[in-house]
Structures are given as structure tokens and as C-alpha cells.
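In response to a reviewer's request, we include the raw inputs and outputs for one of the modeled complexes. The two entities were modeled together in a single run.
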Amino acid sequence: MDELKLYDTNKIRFNKKLVVQIILHTCYVLIGITMLYPLLWLLLASFKTQAEIFATTNILSLPKKWLISNYIEGWKGFGNETFGTYFLNTIIVASLSALGSVINSSLVGFGFARTRFVGKGILFSMMLATMMIPYPIIMIPQYLIYQKLRLVDTFVPLILPSWLGTPFFIFLVTQFMRGIPKELDESAVIDGCSKFGLYFRILLPLSQSALMTVAIFSFYWRWNDFIQPLIYLNKPKLYTLSIALRLFADPTSVTNWGAMFAMSVLSIIPVFFVFFFLQRHVTQGISTTGLKG
Amino acid sequence: MSRKTSLSKLVDEKLAGYIFIFPWLIGIFGLTMFPMLVSMYISFCKYDLLGSPKWIGLKNFYFLFVQDQKFFTSLRITFFYVLTAVPLRLIFSLIIAMILNRKGLNTGIYRTVYYLPSIIGTSVAVAIVWRELFGTNGLINKFTALFGYQTNITLAGMPETAIWVVILLYMWEFGSSMLIFLAGLQNIPEMYYEAAIVEGAGFWRKFFYITIPLLSPILLFNMINQMIHGFLVFTQVYIITQGGPVDATLVYALYMFRRAFEFQDMGAASAMAWIMLLIVGSLSILVFYTSKYWVHYESKEGK
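The model returned the following C-alpha cells for the whole complex.
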């Protein structure tokens, strides 16, 4: 009798566990669908005709006929410039920024993590403080400076800041390098290694994963950046993707919705690929910097 | 020979640090400190980019605080946005992080899917989608049409609801704070919970006495970070509503941008920048200051 009872409660417990699992996974999937819905909508809309996009009966439907024409129309771009130009511009800006961020943050991070100099503490706190300064605060005077230097309508204002250091990235790399055991340096120093040798031979190779995170985020931020290209780039020849996409939505002209959606899809694809192939670095960067903040 | 070695040794020990941080030194003085000083000076000037700045004392501030109605409108909208969007996102991401943090479930794929919007959320493409989803032909009307009702609701087009469309987009990008919380949750030693269960603690007790205290440093970091970003919302509003309808979504950064680059009023715009810096700065200090009452650092226990 007792044995039977025990058996029963176990069975109930087992079933309860299964039910909880099913409920949980249903929740996860529902949230997942909500997360992906806007993107799916965009993807499907990019293959539809104008009339079909705005048919009021469907929340989500496959195109009646998969049209490529939106992509062909959209790629033509505006004036003399095709979307190829905008892509190229965005790639130039984003990759040069990423390169700058990696070089800068590894150098400065090494400086803060592994060298001693007068005023290091103060400078490091200054760096942390500037992390808190929102971009719009310095947006206007920076613009005035670049204007005086005649650098408006070049890529310099978009790329230079990365080469001169983003506090967030410097902080990330400094923390990472501080976590690398000092024993390694000490043995190198005994062998006659200078600080520069230490940087090139030991810290730089060991910091690869942190620098990868820096590269990815720097690339992302520049790829998606809107406000700075909006301020600095006024010639269509120089437009980045985010500015070009906005042109479709210009209130003064008739919008070609299909083309706009098609180009939106294309503009997201590179970000998507970086995300899927380098996901580990992305999530690591987020969680570690968050924790060490 | 010996002079050379001592010189290189000197460089290596005393100066190497400065050499490594040199690029950043140029950056912080050239691109941050100096512009901030310039901006402070210009906030007391009349300057339209064409002539040279003309000193007018406190007139820009007088204009913003007394004459200009939009300044307070934009301040009010931004505060509303920050005070709703940031807590909502934090609570939402904490809930999701907690339900994803269950043992024995493979949640990797969900994490990826939930995190994806954070990566692309700030792009213009997504803002465009958002405008369509909540515009006249948007989601809600399609949804009611499913049940046979023809409605003409446009969340983005109505002054009362427009800001919620932007808040919703902000919520949609909850993935990054979720990941931060998740990493924090995984660092909480399992034995604390086990001990609590032995003591007979229920879910809420465990939540308030273990999870929240141990997560509080991360909560603090997330809060300040999100708050600063919340005050700066620009791109999404610029694309989705352009500040409208009837200035219902005229957030601070957007109004500042307009004062500067559409009205060519660099003086008032610079004054706005400094006011924002003071607001964000004092709020951060306030949060930091109060944090000692609610943020729990484990190392303190040793005292």
C-alpha cells in the first residue's frame, strides 16, 4: 500500500515536471515569435507588391509571387548613386572604425593595465567619467571644430574618434588585461623584454578575444549609426546606408515602399552574419563588461 | 653605451605609459574636454554658424526657460520616456533572464533569438519597420480585421500613444540587459538557494533575499547605463514619428538637434546640451549615492 502511494507521487511529480517544461517552452517560443515577427514581416514585405504590402487582412503572409523587382528598383538608389556606393561607404567607415578601436583600445588598455606613470589614477577616473558623457553633449562643438578644419563632408569625423579612443572599449580591454596573470610578464621582463615587447609579444596575443569583442561592437555601432552621418555627410556620394534608407522615407517624394524594405533587408544582412558567426564574442563582451562595471 | 641603456630604461619605466595612452590623451582633450569648454562658451553666445559667436550672457537660458515652450515639452516627454521605458525594460529583461536561467533546459537558441533585436534594433531599417507596423496600415488594424472589424488605429499617429511606439521599440531590444542579468544570475552560488529551501523559503523570499541583493551591483550598472541612453533617444524618434504628432514625441535630443541644425541656433542648443549634462550627471550621482542603501557587495560581508 505504502509502496503504491510512493510510486503514485513520483509519477505525479514526473508529470508535473513535464507540464512545467512544456509551459516554459511554449512561453519561450511565443516570446521568440514576438521578437522575430518584425524582422519576418520586413523580409516578406520586401518580396511583395505595393498593394500586397498594405492589404489590410493579413498580419503575416507569404507573397503571392516572390518579386525580385523591389531589390532591383531599390539598388538603383538616388540620383547617380546606387546602393553599391552606400554599401561601400558604410563598409569603409565601419571597418576603419573597428580597426581604429582595436589598435587604440589595446594600446591604451595596456597603458592602464601594465605600466606605471604619474597621474594614472586620475586619468583612469577621467576615462570612466567620459564614458558617462552622452554624445549629444559634445555633438555641436565637435561639429564646429570639424567645420573649422574643413572636414565636414569627409569620413574623418566618423572614423577619427575611434582611433583616438572610445572609453567603453578602453575600459573593457583594461579590465581584460588586468585579468591576465602577471607572472607571464615578469618572466619576460627578466629575459630583457621592454614594455613594447611585452605589449606585442604577450599581452596583444593573449587579449584576442577581448579585442574581437571591441572590433565587433565598434563595427556594429558605426554600421547602425545615424546621427553622425546625418550631421556630417551632405553629399549623396558620401551617404552611408542609414542615411540612404531614410531618403526613401522622405516626406516630399512618393515612397517606393517595396524598394525601401528590400534595401532595409540588405542593410541588416551583414550585421546578421557577424552576429551568427561571432556570437560567442558578442555575448561574452556584453556579459563580462556588464559584470565588471 | 651605458647612457643609451639608461635612457631607454628611463623611457621604458617612466614614459612608456604615456606613450601607450597618448592617442587617447589627444582624444580626451581634443574631442571631449575642449569641445565641452567650447560648448560652454557658446551657450552664452548668439551663434548661427555664419558670423562669429556674440556674447549675450544668459539670454539663451532665459529663452529656454521662459520664452520657449518647446524646451519644457521636450524635457517632460524625455523624462516620461526614461521613467517608463527604463524600468519596464529592466523588469522585463530580469523576468526573461530568470525564466531562461533554469537548470536542465537548453535555452541557448532562445537566448540568441531574444538577443538578436538588440544588435539591429538601433538601425534605421528597424525604425522604418516600426513606423509601418504601428502606422495606419499597421499591425493593430490588421489584427482587428482578422475578427471582422475595420479599424483605423494608428498608434504612431496619435499624440496620446505615439511615445509608446518608441517605448515598445526600446523594450524590444531588451536582449543586452537580459544577457547581463543572465550572467549575474549564473554567478549566484547554488548553495544559497539550497540553504533557503532547507529553511523553507518560498519563491518570493528567495527572490527578495537572495536574487535581488546578489544581483544589485548589476542592477545598478544596468540602470545607470540605460538611463543615460534613455535620455539620448534620437534615431528611433527621428525616423518613426519625427517628433510628431503635434510635438508629442519631441524628445530632448531631437529638439536640441533641431535648434542646432535646423534653426542654426548653436547658442541655445549648446545651453541645452549643458542642461542635459547637468541632469544626467546629477541623476547618476543620485543613483550612486542611494546605491549604498540598496546595492549589496559581497566583499563587504567580511567587515
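As requested, we also summarize the result in words. The longest helix of chain B spans residues 2-42. Chain B touches chain A through 97 residues (CB under 8 Å).
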